[in-house]
Amino acid sequence: MIACPWTPRPVSNSTLRGSGLAQSPGVAPVQCMARTSAAAQRPGAARAPLPLRMFAILLLGFTVFADAQAQSWPQHPIKLIVPWGAGGITDALGRFLAQPLGDRLGQQVVVDNRGGAGGTIGSAVAAGAPADGYTLLVASIESYGTTDAERHRLPYNPETAYAPVALVARGANVVVVHPSVKANTLPELVELARGRPDQLHYCSAGVGGNAHVTMEMLQRKAGIHMIHVPYKSGGAAIADIVSGQIEMCIIGTTAVASRIKNGQLRALAIASASRAQMMPEVPAMAEYGYGDVVLAPIYGVVAPAGTPPEIVAHLARELIAVNRSAEFRARLIDIGMEAMEPISGAEFGQFMSTEARRWRAVAAQAGVGE
Fold this sequence. Notes:
Blueprint (H helix, E strand, L loop, with lengths): L6 E4 L2 H7 L10 E4 L4 H4 L8 H23 L5 E5 L6 H17 L3 E5 L6 H8 L7 E6 L7 H6 L8 E9 L2 E5 L8 H10 L5 E4 L5 H13 L4 E4 L3 H9 L5 E5 H9 L4 E6 L26 E7 L4 H15 L2 H9 L3 E2 L5 H22 L4
Parallel strand pairs: 3-4, 3-5, 8-9, 8-10
Antiparallel strand pairs: 1-2, 5-12, 6-12, 6-13, 7-10, 7-11
Helix pairs in contact: 4-11, 8-13
């Protein structure tokens, strides 16, 4: 029996005979009528225009494709951009994240160092990458612009360039000097610099970064002036201060911990309101009355804007799981960091934007970027 695609309606035998059709025994004669909706039978009723229907079909197809893509992700290694050179604290964090995250995702996560311009070169590369879930960025406040001038120079809009994934950690910097510098405490360094204006040099990992802003705030408050020497990476800065080419540096604790231990560098203060778990013997700047001039480095992971929400949510779940593991938190302490309460998605994005605005206000007060 062949199903009729229209609504069947019985007809009389006389109608069949008149049409020349023979009725099969036991089969009720039917006539097919086009089925129409009640709305279509009303006068003036019209179907949706063809372009609108085609758009709806295309939209449905795109949605199905995106969903299938998210479900099959990841299918090959993922690149994790670290916007600083190798050897610094951000590089260490990126490598500590890459392995457990890759294990959880079932694909290798490869660290890609793109240092320069205070972290904004690598941040720009990530902002312009395909939004397919295969490029991530270890973002810091520098990625959002730490000065008003820097914010306007960025080749991307940090408020819209990223899909925020999750907050990861907070770090600490340490003020170190070469052993030849006649200062064993931060107050002694201040007095030395006060007597030798524009003769001492200090290094940081880039203009407008947290170390640079913190030192400029310290100088303003203490009434001293040293010459800033920015570097593309923490590793390059360490090489120069260890060799004595630079007298002082403010840098991540993990980057110089071994140098401090073997006497190549001397630690004067932790650039924080409290002492670091990694160096409990080193006083915090707050203990010397400079607690209001420090900015703690903050790190999270973002993806390019437009990355499918399902992939972003998947990444956030896995990053939060990594963040809460005892092994990862112990490794953070080893590099002078501490895990932060994980927040993700829009809440994380709002947090970073708010912190960036606060940093820009402090930088303006310190005269950075004028």
